[in-house]
Amino acid sequence: MPEDLVAADIRVAKTLPSKFYYDKSIFDSLLSVFSGWQYAAHDSELEANAIVPLNHIESITGEPTIIVKGNEVECLSNICTHRGMRLISQPCNKSTLQCEYHGRTFALEGNMKRMPEFEQAIGFPSESDNLHKFAIDTWKGLHFISQEDTQQLPWAELNERFEFLDIESYVHDPTRDRDHSIAANWMLYVDNYLEGFHIPFVHPELNQTLDYSGYSTEVFEGGVLQIGKASEGDVKFDLPETHPDFGQEIAAYYLWLFPNMMFNFYPWGLSLNIVIPVSSEETRVLYRGYVKDATLAEKGAGSILDTVEIQDQNIIEEVHKSMHSKVYDRGRYSPTREQGVHHFHRIISKIYEQMF
Ligand code: FES
Ligand SMILES: [Fe+2]
Description:
It is built from eight helices and 18 strands. With about 350 residues, it is an alpha+beta fold. It has two domains: about 20-35 and about 155-355, Alpha-Beta Complex (Naphthalene 1,2-dioxygenase Alpha Subunit, Chain A, domain 1), CATH 3.90.380; about 40-145, Rieske Iron-sulfur Protein (3-layer Sandwich), CATH 2.102.10. The strands form three sheets. Strands 11, 12, 13, 14, 15, 16, 17 and 18 form an eight-stranded antiparallel beta sheet that branches. Strands 1-10-9-4-3-2-5 form a seven-stranded antiparallel beta sheet, covered by helices on one side. β6 and β7 (about 105) form a beta hairpin. The structure holds FE2/S2 (inorganic) cluster and fe (ii) ion.
């Protein structure tokens, strides 16, 4: 059997070859990983009869989609089944969806209801006249959609850790939203997210609020969880006695779900990063903020997000430039600090090897 590109044993493994970060054909091939589960929206963004175009999903996958709250939350195609007009371009509240082109009307569940001048059409309407429905999964008020049959999201792994948080009741705060553009490959953004190794070097302010010696990383199928411990006296979670981390001073849970979703849980609430691959050399990162208790956002690891983000971006852009070097190709992993990066590279390399 040929050896894995990224060895399973982190102690001997080498990082992904640098061409993974700039080669256009590798970038294009790996885009297929984005058609699986993607974060769509939180319940607090969906009032009754809300119809919201998921522009970020379209940026990521190219597929125009909407999320709709009728009797249920549904994720539907944003393309009229008649001749392909885009149905909705702005969020709105309506009890039906009507196409502006020739008036085809759909129920919020996606079924075609009315269409003028089609009385003589034979075999009409049929199933294909309804809007396409995408798979949807909801975890604690967070809605996810998928464009393909894919593995389930790893909630079973996470419920024990997160059931104490009533994420359902958090409220979207648009003042915390950001849209960053970075001159680097999307996988460098993920690599950087998946290790706290750089915190003492790159983030002096964050390093003061975290106890670096207690930082830990757990890997599981489809994701990585990093746990940041609070420095003495800093803001921490109030954990119930039954919680697996009870007795520890936890400042933040950093959860990454493959390939591009980052959920940063702080005592004040949730800051979510969605990584959007634009090209092999450019990435967008969207921030979404969901607040539980804003008064806790002024101190601790969750209080300096913009500072930390800029520090990360500067480093990532520098690393991206280095990927074109003729002498640098692959590095090694710290067995104690880079388990998350290793896990991500293993997933990517296996997908890549299956393609070629
Ligand atoms: S394209 Fe929608 S009704 Fe014709
Ligand atoms: Fe960082």
